[in-house]
Model the fold of this input.
Amino acid sequence: MKKEQGLLKTLIEILLISTRLGFTSFGGPVAHLGYFHEEYIRRRRWMDEKSYADLVALCQFLPGPASSQVGIGIGTMRAGVLGGFVSFLGFTLPSVFALIIFALILEGLDVGEIGWIHGLKIVAVAVVAHAIMGMAQKLTPDLKRKAIALLALVGTLLWQATYTQVAVILLAALIGFIIYRNQKDETATNFKLPISRGFAIVCLVLFFALLVLLPILREVTTSQWIAMFDSFYRSGSLVFGGGHVVLPLLEQEFVPTGWLSEEAFLAGYGAAQAVPGPLFTFAAYLGALMNGWTGGLLATIAIFLPAFLLIFGTLPFWDSLRHNPKVKGALMGVNAAVVGILISAFYQPIWTSTILSPIDFAFAAILFSMLVFWKLPPWVVVLTGAIGGALMSYI
Done:
């Protein structure tokens, strides 16, 4: 009984915290990692720095929404499979509901001209900068790992292709293995993963089975629901690089086929940039346009289902591998590369699309100081950013 009560209390805690993040985490997947790092690692210490870095590295390898997978992973490590689901629901549902509402209200408007939204983008600049500083101190303490981070930064900035991040991470793993394969890692990591390998194997089998069977079912039936589920599931399964990459894939799935007009798709794209939470919730907007609120719910389930199956299917094996001495060197290289990738994403698109004038930079410096030096809660910084952005639009 006490164990059940303890689990319920933990699940409620996860739900409350992840829901607050779901309402306030603007700025895209890199910013989400910054918000997670601030809330879960710095403030609550649910995981140690190295375990968080290893989880981020794993999710960079996997297709799908990396930040959502990191959130699912943190919830799973905290309270098992139920914790993963609760963490996902809290972080994602605000975005799902808000995106449908925004798509209706903001259709035909220039979202980029709304002042408070620009203020929230400046908040993301401060949050990501803070996260990068903290991770760089832990993950690139020596010149060799600083060099790996620099190579990753340069590579991802100059070679912006779909699989660039995966290629950079694989190369960093090889370099790290060569340099650090005999070096002992004294950093302690302490958490229990409440997922069995049997359950993980079932999830991986189901992931690949659906990838193969759904297109077949689509061909042998005339059900629009199956066709929708297949399109969203395939988009969520085969995308590396985050939400911005999935948008053109979804456009190819639904605009040429006549399910959606180009104008309706672009209106939703504008709204998707405005809401907090994962960009993959753009699927809810598309599904709702095609089949009402039930279509939005189905689309959301379909596009995020691969993320669940992959993270549940790989975590138990990843936890064993990352403690293997032969793998630790490769992980040291990968973690250093992740720092470079985050800096690259911090510049493009976060910085280049947000800091457009001296006043933007000044406001970002104020928000950064509030977060780092005065150590104010993130929600205070977010609220200040929204109000400041609205006021700046009149200057």
Q: What stands out?
A: Residues 66-105 form the longest helix (40 residues). The chain has one domain: 11-183+194-395. The two ends are 59 Å apart (CA to CA). The mean pLDDT is 83.
